Amino acid sequence: MSTTLTAGLNHGLSKANRIITGHDASGKSTFVESPELLYMDVQGAYASARSYSVEKVPAPLSGDQDLKAYLSKNGGENITSHTNNGITIPNGVNMVAVNFAPGSTTAMHRTVSIDFGVCTHGEIELELDSGEKRVIGPGDTIVQRATMHRWTNLSKDKAARMIAVTIYADNIEVGGKKIEETFVTE
């Protein structure tokens, strides 16, 4: 899996923009300069970009702490940096844009989080490790509760997009077993 981050991996979809708001010195609301989304390409199947993240909830907005951390170019030292590509932020929140190439399927995986997803383009199939499947289309939402799952773009010729917000979950137990982040390579 590649960890190189690249702008513009949209798989033929319109460019996704990130708009960030803030405050000027007098307290008036303003728009904040924002870098282009940087996508992590995963074997040509899909590309995900961190749209915004905060290190904890409640979010540290005073003094623009969250904004400074997010705009930092030092992803190695700052987990919430826009140059990082992790799906979850321990104790925090992450919003990602995910572009699926036509006909692509992700690996079966689980994150230690509750994820709120919205399909914005195309039809995407959600498959659970139980074999159950559901199809989501534009405007449909998913609440993913730390379950093993994979995504498939059902179109063979059009890309699909989903926006997801992941909120870290701690000490999840199911059937007496602690749930951990899992990625199955096939």
Q: Kindly provide the radius of gyration, computed on alpha-carbon positions and rounded to a whole number of angstroms.
A: 17 Å
Distance between termini? 13 Å
- The parts where pLDDT drops under 50 for at least 5 residues are none
Q: What is the H-and-E element order?
A: EEEEEHEEEEEEEEEEE
Secondary-structure-based class equals mainly beta
Mean pLDDT: 90
State the total count of DSSP E strands: 16
Shape: globular
Q: Identify the strand order in the major beta sheet.
A: 1-4-5-6-13-8-11
Major sheet, described briefly?
Answer: 7 strands, antiparallel
The number of helical elements comes to 1
Helix content: under 10%
In terms of topology, how is this protein built?
Blueprint: E1 5-7, E2 20-23, E3 29-32, E4 38-42, E5 46-54, H1 65-71, E6 93-100, E7 109-110, E8 113-121, E9 124-128, E10 133-136, E11 141-145, E12 149-153, E13 160-168, E14 173-174, E15 177-178, E16 182-183
Antiparallel strand pairs: 1-4, 2-3, 4-5, 5-6, 6-13, 7-16, 8-11, 8-13, 9-10, 9-12, 14-15
What does this structure look like?
This protein is mainly β and 186 residues long. 4% of the residues lie in helices and 42% in strands. The protein has a 7-stranded antiparallel β-sheet. A 3-stranded antiparallel β-sheet has the order 10-9-12, with no helix packed on it. A two-stranded antiparallel sheet has the order 2-3.
Characterize this entry briefly.
This protein is mainly beta.
Q: Descriptors for this entry?
A:
single chain, 186 residues, mainly beta, 16 strands, seven-stranded antiparallel β-sheet, three-stranded antiparallel β-sheet
